[in-house]
Amino acid sequence: MATEAELVLAGLDPEQRLIAEHLRGPISVLAGAGTGKTRAITHRIAYGVRTGVYAPERVLAVTFTRKAAGELQGRLRALGADGVRAQTFHGAALSQLGHFWPDVIGGSAPQILPGKVAALSQTVEAAGMRLGGEALRDLAAEIEWRKTSMLSIDDYAARIDQRPIPTGLTPEQLIDLHTRYAGLLEERRQIDFEDVLVLLTGMLESEPRVALQVRERYRFFTVDEYQDVSPLQHALLKVWLGDRDDVCVVGDASQTIYSFAGASSSYLLRFGVEHPNARQVRLERNYRSVEPIVRMANRLMRDRPGALTLTAMRATQDPAPEVGAPLTSATPWPNARPGPGRSLRPRRGQLHPLSNGSRARATKRRPSRARLRPRSRRAPRLPRSPCCIAPMPSRPGSKMPCVSVALACECTVLSVFSNGQMCVRP
């Protein structure tokens, strides 16, 4: 009979199982979209807890959003790893900073600034300038980039010619506003979210006693979405680890989305250089999409740094009604999965994939009597139904593959416009 620990591994594919069984030492997981990376890392942690290798209270799973952290926490709880903490970088850092601040600095920790834009608006006004909302947001983004890149104001000034200047500002004014903003926060005894990471990293580097307590508390680390780690977050992870290397990082270089905030996929791609004894596992079995979608994704990502070659594990797409079938409340959306008591009927003004560009207009009282409103006679637009993405030039009447997140099929080209868009029909 299988033990409880072995049951955790049941249902994992071979690569996911390799990840789950690698409990000690550094491991890098290159995971494409839909390959089950969250399943792999949660089962890895649960397997470590069930086998006794991990004490649950000494495991820290880190991700980038509170929603993702909540999902990790829920999955771990369902797998019996209740004591494991799943937090964001900022959440974990804020907790530790608040805990150690009274002993190391004295008094209570500074208050967190609710948002940069309001403070920057006051800073700009105090400097005798006026900026619009968009320019203020650009200025806030530059301050965030400077801090996550671990640059002082002087270092930033040396690179100012390489950075975008918000509209309405000169380089000298931009540097002056950085200085004034820092002075305003110090005067108010406030810190922003980037300062939370800056202060904790500095505290752990300068206070060995504090670093020792944190390392005693957390021994095993898992970092999700590692392709979006910034230099500041990477530095914090290093001081958390110390001279240990029990860390699992997971990511996909093709899904980097926080480059504007200083993130770099190089930390993921060069993990083996930083940890020479690290193991690397690639998750390339895609369980989410059908083969045409996966094939197109591979074509788009080919030759990019860290690109994965995905393999579709779904043999066919979900069945859909025949083209031309009447649009009724029973007509399903492709690949839809309704919850209990939920209807698959299109909402008001939403396009059904088989409606050939027509909108469904249904009353709230009698949704079963849906009527189709034909488009006007003006120039046709590209339909927004899931079956309307044309990946290559074609001509009216020809057949071509149609690829989208929701549906993959063969479509007939109805019109080709001067801007390269096409109106197609399943």
The end-to-end span amounts to 51 Å
| Global mean pLDDT | 81
Spatial shape: globular
Percent strand: 15-25%
Give the neighbour order of strands across the main sheet: 3-2-6-7-1-8
The radius of gyration over CA amounts to 26 Å
User: Which structural class do you get from the secondary structure elements?
Assistant: alpha/beta
Q: State the low-pLDDT regions, or none.
A: 323-346, 349-411, 413-424
Structure notes:
It is built from 15 helices and 15 strands. Strands 3-2-6-7-1-8 form a six-stranded parallel β-sheet, with helices on both faces. A three-stranded antiparallel β-sheet has the order 13-14-15. The two termini are 51 Å apart. The C terminus is likely disordered. By secondary structure, it is an alpha/beta fold. The chain is 38% helix and 15% strand.
Protein traits:
single chain, 426 residues, six-stranded parallel β-sheet, 38% helix
Topology:
Blueprint: H1 4-9, H2 14-21, E1 27-31, H3 37-51, E2 59-63, H4 66-78, E3 85-88, H5 89-104, E4 111-112, H6 116-126, H7 133-148, H8 153-158, H9 171-188, E5 190-191, H10 193-206, H11 208-217, E6 220-223, H12 231-241, E7 247-251, H13 266-269, H14 271-274, E8 279-283, E9 285-290, H15 291-301, E10 311-314, E11 359-361, E12 371-373, E13 399-403, E14 408-416, E15 422-425
Parallel strand pairs: 1-7, 1-8, 2-3, 2-6, 4-5, 6-7, 9-10
Antiparallel strand pairs: 11-12, 13-14, 14-15
Helix pairs in contact: 2-3, 5-10, 6-7, 6-9, 10-11, 10-12
